[in-house]
Amino acid sequence: MATAPTPVSHPSSPVPSLAAVPTPAHEPSTRWLLGILLVVALLPRLVVFFLNENLYGDAVVRTELAERWLREPHLITAYGDGAYQFGPLHLYLVGVALSVFDREVAGRVVSLLFGVLSVVPLFALTRRLFGWREGVVAGLAFAAWGMHLQFSTTAGSEAVSLFFMLAAFALYAEAVDENRFAPLFQAALMLNLACALRYDAWMYIPLLCVALVFSSQDKVAALTRAVGFGLACLPFPLLWMQGNELMHGDPFFPVKAVEDFHRNWVLSSAGSGAAIGWRVQQLFFWPGVALLTLSPGVALLGMVGMVKAWKARPDTRWLVAAAVVPTAYFTFRAVVLLNFVPLGRFTVTQLVVLPVFVAFGFAALVGSKGEGLRKAVVGVTAVLAVALPVAMGLFTFHAEGRLQDSLRPVSPTSTNPVPVMRVADFVKEQVAAKGGAVALDDDPSYMDLQVAFFSGLPEERIARVRWDTFRKRLAEARPEVLVRFDQGSLVKDPGVKLEGRTLTLDGVGYEEVEGFIAPLHVYRRRE
């Protein structure tokens, strides 16, 4: 991601310059600028790090799988080899962190490290395309990005994957700008690592290859670069496909498993009818998440900048396409095909492109206007960029309600439902601390995973209805506490009988404990 000392000259553009004052003859020290941006990105993430809890992004499942890998380290080669629908690289990283940190912190530390470091390739990318001041603006907008604050402080893979995607973009821009192979192969390496983290990174291989074909007037050189880059991007995808072919008989087994999950999810969310309302909601999902999480000022300026850059700066079209094409693809699947459910965390690689174009969009809109208007736009944009995530974070922090639940996945703060944590704390204090065991019902919204994770109990001391080892664990651990969910499947078990506040499981009686809120119920075994 090395960058030239000064921005490369580009064809004259009708877009006004960013500022009314002339550009300084000498750029400030890049190390100094990056140091400031790293501190600015770190500070808000440190604040929410001590407030947040693992909830979304399969954070607890990823941590538990990483614990299994750490107990038996090996090269994960397929879906059924320990990674399931997740990228194996993330499990390695969290597994290594688990050798140093507590399970509730390890994955979050990994996310924090890569989340903060992401400002480096973002600055390098923006600086190369537009200049150092534009790079600073992009870094500041990124530092305040509320949704990324959550991703950087919980144990999902979004922050880690985004670092490698930004690194790939920055190196790719360097390769195209300087017409060199070395940074292009480095970009391919970064993309391999991103593909080992999340499947949505795979689509960027053909997308960036096609962009390379149109990157130069010399078509032979452009095609040569595209073929070389494409081949360099294939090692991990090919090895992963081979592993799944050998284990499951299908090289695309993990992808199909994820697709089936989303297809069933759509049926449960949108129904089988026309689902007009659901389709309309998904149509505006990506721009809606941008406006809500990046703030209206940053999002709108970034969108304007992308439109203007497409016309005035052909050298940036590949980056615009990197944001627009995946957005259009996922939107088409959600709106027309009805086989995909978009989530805020799925938008991160596309939305991170918007800060790159914020300063360019500002120049296009008000660069030639009066100083008062320019200052007003900057002020309003800056205030909204900070105030909106702060307000959303406070609104959703340990708060229950339909609106809070809707905003929590994209809020800076991620906290589990209070009733869930109350049960988890009880099990941790009354069972785990005394060397006991628990029987755990399943929950349609997967809150049983949260109870198990935060209880602090090892796997062998939890008999989970969700697992096919439920009866085996039940016989071995003889749990003295049982946790039931109102919508769980435990009561449907032929060995279970529920009468008032008494539950009998395989002939063993349990009495309900006072002080817990539905849909959770806690029972203690009769002596």
Distance between the termini: 66 Å
Low-pLDDT windows of residues: 2-22
Helical amount? 55-70%
Q: Main β-sheet: number of strands, strand sense, barrel status?
A: 7 strands, mixed
Query: Helix/strand-derived class?
Result: mainly alpha
Give the percentage of residues in beta strands.
Answer: 5-15%
Inertia-based shape: globular
Taking all Cα atoms into account, the compactness measure Rg is 25 Å
Count every beta strand, where a strand is a DSSP E run of 2 or more residues. 7
The residue-averaged pLDDT reads 93
Query: In oligomeric terms, what are we looking at?
Result: single chain
Number of helices: 24
Widest sheet, order of strands:
2-1-3-7-6-5-4
Region (Disordered): 1-21
Transmembrane segments: 32-51, 105-124, 136-153, 159-176, 188-214, 220-240, 284-306, 318-341, 347-366, 378-399
Main location: membrane
Subcellular location: Cell membrane
Characterise this structure.
- This protein is mainly α and 527 residues long.
- Among the domains are: 30-257 and 368-395, no CATH class; 418-525.
- The protein contains 24 helices and 7 strands.
- The protein has helices spanning 30-49, 59-71, 88-98, 103-117, 119-129, 132-143, 146-151, 158-178, 182-195, 204-213, 219-232, 235-248, 253-270, 276-283, 285-293, 296-312, 317-337, 348-351, 358-366, 371-396, 402-407, 418-430, 447-455, 470-477, and strands at residues 438-440, 462-464, 481-485, 496-499, 502-505, 508-512, 520-525.
- The radius of gyration is 25 Å and the shape is globular.
- Residues 88-222 form the Glycosyltransferase RgtA/B/C/D-like domain.
- Residues 1-21 are annotated as: Disordered.
- It is found in: Cell membrane.
- It is a multi-pass membrane protein.
- One of its GO terms (biological process) is lipopolysaccharide biosynthetic process.
